[in-house]
Amino acid sequence: MKFARELAEPWGLLLAATSAGVAWAVQLPVVAALGIGVAVLAARAGAAALGGEQEPPQREARVLDVAPGSAEEGWLRRASAAAEGFASLSGSLASGPLAERVADMEPVVRETLSTLQRLAGRASATGQALARVDLEAVAHERRRLQRELRTASQEVRGDLEQALTAVQAQADVHQRLSGARDKLLAQLQSGALGLDSLVARVAELTAATSDVTVDTGAVRELSDQLEGIRQGVLETEQATRKSLG
């Protein structure tokens, strides 16, 4: 155990012995001096053991670059504009219940935008990976190997089957990447348009509501809408991370 190892650590023993010696030097009873030394040793070992077992800080998710001019960049730009519009609306509201409720939603909007940025980066990375697989060439190789297998002798059949398996693996990778990219782009579109809609609803509510008559039902609806957007982008991020690794 870590605590036991710390008890036997030389510097800890030296500190305990020194403490006991000082206690004896000031004419404390021997038993008391020994007790002080043991207490110092135990305290040091406990502190070292606890300090060493603290969990390392959680690393932030890596943000991949978004390909310029890509579809994902367009949706991310739109989501960023919506988030800026939401912050601007929030800052323009006079102090009151409505302003407080809208301000409470700002951190969730920023979190959602950060997740969308990660999704856009993953969409770009997926697109780059897709470009490395020539699906037409893969299909051509598969047909050729299948033809050769029909007339292959036993001596070469195993090698041809292994080659066909490798070619099929490339096709499977392309299919997974294509499905993941489609899902990412769909969620980016949904998230960006959802934030756009949220900003429009906040603007509408701001124009139609005074601080004296806050429509709590409408505000709750806005919060639910934002939470739905947040959950959607998070679930997509988790699903694509699991499927692509």
Question: Strand share of the residues?
Answer: under 5%
| Percent range of helical residues | over 70%
What's the shape? rod-shaped
Figure out the total of helices.
Answer: 8
How many independent structural domains?
A: 2
Tell me what you see in this structure.
With 245 residues, the chain is mainly alpha-helical. Helices cover 82% and strands 0% of the residues. Helix 2 (10-25) packs antiparallel against helix 3 (30-52), helix 4 (71-92) runs parallel beside helix 7 and helix 5 (97-131) runs parallel beside helix 8 (216-244). The protein is rod-shaped.
In short:
With 245 residues, the chain is an all-alpha fold. The protein is 82% helix and 0% strand.
Question: Topology, pairings included?
Answer:
Elements lengths: L1 H6 L2 H16 L4 H23 L18 H22 L4 H35 L3 H16 L3 H55 L7 H29 L1
Helix pairs in contact: 2-3, 4-5, 4-7, 5-7, 5-8, 6-7, 7-8
Keywords:
rod-shaped; mainly alpha; 82% helix; disordered N terminus; single chain
